């Protein structure tokens, strides 16, 4: 492999610019003549827009223009869409309501834009935005989405019962039959709290229109610039695809929130053309809280059937998923195909039935957030397992072990066909890592100090690298989910890798270069990664769902195959050998069993001088691959969390946390560990701290870092990590993906640990000290009555 | 409008700015020092942290006019030529960054933490001192390691300088 190949702990190539302040994020783009845009946003969750009078604003210093929703409609710019069509169980299509860039008639969530002010400076635009006179007629709002049917209607005429889709998966009759003959039934009801992704870089867009060429350039904070260009051109009519360049430069985190195309990007493209100058908009943090797509937000009732031997025989799930005021780009896929398909967890469950009701409410649109559907599924499955173990008076480890899948491939009743992993092995390693044998002594020691200690488990599975295109197409996806890669070998032997994936913290510049270094034995410093610009890379689907490794990396591997084959042909020709006898090692092409060899760069130069190539061969060394995997990949892991709860204050401290994952082959352990750390922080954040709160009128009460509890350094422990590498048989690198694991596996581990510590199962996320303290008090009630 | 005179990364700057111009705006928009980032509007995230006269300050919270006469160091001014500051090196070695957006603020804060704790740093102290800086990517695990390692290097560096 060499010091830099697959499996090496190489420090990152991209760090040089970030640690010196030389990163180039969208807000760092300053074009000549650039002006600033600020949006006027609704203060109401639901209101009729009676009138908008921009005249006073237009007189303010520095103001260039004020744009309202009708202007955008008149310009022929289309509505925003949801790109994944699903059907209700009765066969009717989901009810997608019109989603205007700025709705001229009605606003449906706090923060929805109604007008855009363009001024010389941002400060001037902010002042003028205050002066835009909007008259609203406030209406009652629906925020209690669990009671969607009795609330005010969000989209009259489209969904009069606020139901977008009443969707199902699995065999209801067979599942009911399993319950009819069950020895034990365990019931649970829970809420998966609503979160804000909170990438540290706020969303931003800079649009520039070149009149001479009728061409628009958009710099934007996007996880998938090509899909943005496709959607902006094909559906929103912002510009023709070949006249639109989308650049996603350095992007400061996404976690899902930057997958989507938002009204502001569309408005900036329109405005740049209208005012004839580059237009920049950058969200402030409160705008980000109000308008970045939120995540999660489910309420669920479920029951699990067991036979007399505590083997699971059935699982029945009823979920209501809030999608907010409008259907965001992939919102319909998250609580359906990305959620219910993972309800089998790591367990052999013969019968599963899930019913998911997708509903509207007067809240910010909800879409995929780190893990997207899989955290919701895992939280439900793992909370149910723990509850069941307690109900049976059994060890949660034993209950899991009894039900683990051990034969692969394994077909679940909910579409997925799992590739090999080793669930017992993961549990074994996790128990060793946390020193489970020492736990009773640690617990006793805590008790001596008057503290409550608990331990909680979570054995998750997820589906990464969503694919293949044909399968997702049959399930309603509007796009294919392959990935492209182009390998350009220069005459001097340096290599450029063009990828359709996008890195916003995932370290592609390093790990992709490692894949190339591994293959050819060239130094990583001779490899550069090009991504994030639709003028440089022809097409790609971007980065989310941990697809960069399995799908993006797979595409690179496939393109490298082609480069390797051609390089070998050239080398064989030059050395008068058989191509089958050429081996590439340490940057040299050698004839096996002889001392004949050529350096990598000599072969590359020969490809370009073309003085002596095999008969009929085209000069050059550049190959492309469009790789469409045969299946998802299935990373899995066991997390164990040990907490100490102070019964007097309800404060939970995580004293030990171990995560043992099977990510298949690991390209760079340092990078993978970093991904896990970040995911764990988000998962623990969800369990202990984070949550959006809307009041009854639909005001977002958590719209700043003063109100929304982001995990900070002293809220978190250091983590203990370990891995098991069961290679994925279905992709060229054997990788599975690691980006979401932490966020998926952590919440149930934490809540299971706290409920174990305090002796009651009734605890909802986020488990704030107040909630935990109240839960402790509730367990003491019978004593008080004594 | 105010006349603001500053030393920024060792360079003397004299600018006339509107009274409400924040230091971070002056740095980013007037001086092109875009390494200092804005992550929030409530002085909570620390992405904008710079040093003013040697102390870490959130540059989104001070007016440019207010700090006239001061010496400001931003992330762009931390390295000595091509030689990275030990804190920068440590963030790279320990993978203390992913998207890199919080990183300039984290590094500037890290240097300040070490400077204020000549007695040495343990994990609990580092975590407590980092409360004003948010990172969404790294889970802090490696940032804490990086600061601890840099503290050692900075001390060793200081000793070797003293010995010269
Ligand atoms: S931008 Fe200054 S603290 Fe957030
Ligand atoms: S590295 Fe992305 S926010 Fe810290």
From TrEMBL, chain A:
The keyword Oxidoreductase applies. Residues 20-140 form the Aldehyde oxidase/xanthine dehydrogenase a/b hammerhead domain. GO terms for molecular function: iron ion binding; oxidoreductase activity. Keywords: Molybdenum, Oxidoreductase. InterPro entries: Ald_Oxase/Xan_DH_a/b (IPR000674), Ald_Oxase/Xan_DH_a/b_sf (IPR036856), Ald_Oxase/xanthine_DH-like (IPR016208), AldOxase/xan_DH_MoCoBD1 (IPR008274), AldOxase/xan_DH_MoCoBD2 (IPR046867), AldOxase/xan_DH_Mopterin-bd_sf (IPR037165). It holds the Pfam family MoCoBD_2. This is Carbon monoxide dehydrogenase. It comes from Acuticoccus sediminis. The lineage of its organism: Bacteria, Pseudomonadati, Pseudomonadota, Alphaproteobacteria, Hyphomicrobiales.
UniProtKB/TrEMBL annotation, chain B:
Keywords: 2Fe-2S, Iron, Iron-sulfur, Metal-binding, Oxidoreductase. It comes from the Bacteria. The keyword Iron-sulfur applies. Gene3D superfamilies: 3.10.20.30, [2Fe-2S]-binding domain. Coiled coil: none annotated. One of its GO terms (molecular function) is oxidoreductase activity. InterPro entries: 2Fe-2S-bd, 2Fe-2S-bd_dom_sf, 2Fe-2S_ferredoxin-like_sf, 2Fe-2S_ferredoxin-type, Beta-grasp_dom_sf, Diverse_Oxidoreductases. Pfam families: Fer2, Fer2_2. The keyword Transcription regulation does not apply. Residues 2-78 form the 2Fe-2S ferredoxin-type domain. This is Carbon monoxide dehydrogenase. The lineage of its organism: Bacteria, Pseudomonadati, Pseudomonadota, Alphaproteobacteria, Hyphomicrobiales.
